[in-house]
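Exercise: predict the fold of this chain.
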Amino acid sequence: MENKILSPKSDLIFKLIFGDNRNIDILADFLQSVLDLPKVEYSHITIVDPHFRQETIDDKLGILDVKLHTKNGKIIDVEIQVSDVPQMRERILFYSSKMITEQIGKGGSYKLKKVISIVITDYNLITENDTYHNKYLLYDKNTGSKFTDVLEINTLELPKLPIAEDHTMLWNWLQFLKSSDEEELAMLAQKSPQIEKAVGILKVLSQDERTRLLYEEREKARLDNQARLEGAFEQGGTSKAIRIAKNALKKNMPLHEIVAITELSYEEIEGILKEMD
């Protein structure tokens, strides 16, 4: 029996497709569908280490899904989030600020490269409107004047994607992420050579036994985290969440995942970590 197509919105599958240096053309095509950068920026893309460097011994390492530099040094982070994570907006700002501050070495200048975050969610993150692509910049709300273009945040929400095609490449790419149906994927593959390549890679990954095992482990862990989060607050509120956070820290679980399963703030978890040292 043929294995079913794995979901490309799984963080594992997403990274294997968009975070592989062999698939730079796929990544570039997706980025062009989202951003307004000059085309030359995509002529040389470098996928870089997704870990943030530690400034102090107590500083926790954040891990991005896909992090890259463009030809002229712009820094782009692409994140995909299937589960509704508490304080997601704060997490986006935290990661964006880390990408800014890590550019400044000791005694270095404040000349900064532009930082762009692209956050794809499988739930409604922006409740203020029904637009599936929101773009945020720093500007004055009264005059509309831009303070700086060093920071840009793009949110892409899969549930808001219109059923009917809107004739944009962004719609095609987000529909690809939503789909695990072979017929639909075959139709999407006709939209561009890059989507066709992505569909082909997805099919190969879906037939690979090791990838399927990793995928199933990730899905189980995600569902277990959701259940643990719900159970934590049904059985004891904050004190239970603190115990869960301590256990997760002992296992070196990434900070953002601990925030997700406990609903504690980053500051609270950092405080717990310092108490444990």
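Check your answer against the key: The chain has a mean pLDDT of 86.
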